[in-house]
Design a protein that fits this description.
- With about 850 residues, this protein is mostly helical.
- About 60% of the residues lie in helices and about 0% in strands.
- It has 32 helices and eight strands.
- A two-stranded parallel sheet has the order 1-8.
- Helix 5 crosses helix 6.
- It starts with 9 loop residues before the first helix and ends in a 15-residue tail after the last helix.
Length: about 850
Amino acid sequence: KSFLGNGSSYQEGVDFVSKLSKLLVFCIGKNDVKPMQQAVSSGGEVKATNGTNGAEDSAMEETSDGTEDLLRFFAFVGPYFHPSNTGAWTFPLGVLLHYFSFEFCRRMARNTSHRAITAKYPQLAAKIMEVEPFKQTSAILDSEVVLILDSILPLCQQALYSKSPRVSRGGEQALLYLSQMDHKICPMFLDFAMRALDISSVALSHQAPAALSALSRLVSPSLKRNPAFFLERLPDILNLSLAGIDSNDQTKTVRTLILYRTITSWIPVGKSTGSNWCDGDKTCPGTFRFGKELTDAVNSNCESEDYWNALRNLPSNSLLHQAEMSYSMDKEDEQARLSNLMEETAYAMGDWSIAFLERLYDLFRAAGVQEKRGKSHGVASRHSSADASEAKHFMSLLKQCLFQVFSSMDDKNFELALRCVENFLISETLPMAVKYASILCEAVCAARMHQDNGNHSPGLISLLPQLAKDLRNKSTGTILYRLRCIGGAVRQAGKDVAKYKKELFAVLEFALGDNDDKHIFKAGCKLLRHLLSSQSESYIILNDSCPRFSEEHSLGKSAHLDGDKILWHIPDGQQLNLVAEILSYFIFDRLRSLSLAKAGSESIDLSEWRRCLKLVRYTLRGTSGLLQEIDGTIDNVRENIDEFDPTEIAISALSESAPQKCREVLSKTRGSLAILLSLFLSIIANGGETVETDNSEDGNVKKAIETRSIESLIATDVKICKEVSLISIYLSTRRGASVHSQDERSLWKVQKSIASDRMLSSARKEIMTVLLKAGLSLATSTTLYNDGEEGGKSLSRRMVTTRVNIFHHQLQRNSSYEVPRRLRRRNRNMAKAEKGTFSCGSTF
């Protein structure tokens, strides 16, 4: 049923394949009859070896019946994996390959966990065998492991280049699981993928996207056990993959960016400064680690003498034949070789970073209209939702890649890259690529660590004076382009933004002043939002995501929090004072001038109020995490600490570093805006048309002169009503600039599932289960973070810092829901309800 591919029962077929995979893995190592009876019954019968040599015949004689059946099955379905042999069987076979590799990896992990427990707790291991005797038959002979790998690898190779994208992804995932079991298969597949990227391989050009994806999956397992495998090939991989940045092929571009993001997550660009990083506290509360026995047991899976003998017995045309040559050298020779390779890699990565930026500039020059979902739907819609989703995904991936590339650079390479970016931005104006240029500016201007443990932004110091220079005399397209670039530059620039207060105020006055161009005004609103967010929000320092590499932290080893604390940008009093000045000058002064100008007048400038309300909305998006609706003094919070959210407590403590006048502005802003919005809502609710009719006769003709009140004009203005509604939502539901933490977490989980080491994580779960049953590890109500490889993790530093930052955003999101909960609790405890500010009798 599964192999026929019944389209009406898709999930049922996938579930069947999953269960079939478990059954096949369960049968590995099992015999139909006892070994002695089998030897007697078989007599002198010679088993078919399908053309193998005599050494393999002797190995097959010791192979269990279940493994022989499995090898026979894979030999039978092998032709159906050929990329040209497509049909109803293609997808089920791809799913089978994925699930079988996963279950095979899990079984190997259980064997690994048992060896680790036996090494440390031999009595416990013996007791486990008594209580759970079925685990005695779970061990797989090393010779059988080699035969199974040898039969699966050709299937993975063919599945990689399948015409079905889902089968290709299944082949990639299966290859990842197998490489985590035995890292020696990585070199042959690295070479296999590089051949498809070679410009001389014209016949293999269609295989380039699949080859790029395979390379991305093999980076981490290649570096973990023997980094020399990957470092020897890295310069060629970087040079060959640059052609993947292609404006005419977005699929290939996306896979190339993923490859570069993965490489720079594990290997620094230039000289590594990892020895200066691990200077945090040696104990990190909330983390949990098993010990080195787990990683040692995983690494010993494919290093036994029986395993090597089985490799040597394979035929010469086997994909595993090269594994015999990838032996480990002496430790001193290996360290010397690795040191030389790292020095060569530093130069290669530095040269590649400049070439990578040049390829991106060509991509920016060829950019067209940005896909964005329009208001119309159906045939006449500008772009479909699928186009908008793809564009959003590409922008997110480009941002992650650029951030990681710049965070991995040492100071020398960063200076060269900064000079390259500066020349590009000043010499060219690309209105169609304004979003790409904004992301580039954000990445290059993000705050970096300074020698005095502060943060600074050399990118902002270099770019901002050039971008803001003589802005009034530029064309409209150039003004829009540079405003968006400045908005990206200040977004995560840290404390150096305050040094350019005069230049930024001049730019904002020009964009938000008497300029009639609505596009320039909107770009100025975005610049204001990013400026306020950069000075009022906490975010991780850019180069804290740089890969670690030192004597204690080898290349390819999983990042950890214990002893390597995360570095944050935290606003100080000067930055909060700048936020207060911006609020006073651009928001309250503008509202005050509009109110005083129309006092006693019977007319109203609706366009000015629309612009002012839009400005308030963008301001709230940038400062919503800093503005509190409570008495923000720390003493008041400490007296009623049970009522407040952790984010509110932190903001109250943070505001203590600001001057007194600044604290007054920040504490009153949300309340003042709430009163203003409640009055606007009252006017809108009561703003029916007021008609005054003057009946006069002019030759039997009646003239009706209708005049409308200001309240009626406001209530019937769609844009004002929309702005008031949005501002009301932001006031009541926003407590942070980032509101997409759920989307970020979903994307992070996908990346984690791809990067995780299944052998390590499955072994950790098995060991934890056994220790809990034995009472050697007590279950607590506190959830601890499994830290590093000793905790069963295989994550880069970028993945760890991103997860912590997502948790920070989730705290802000939870704080948004805490405010209405507190108000409901207070209303329930009140004997008499408070009088609301909403009234239908309000006037303008």
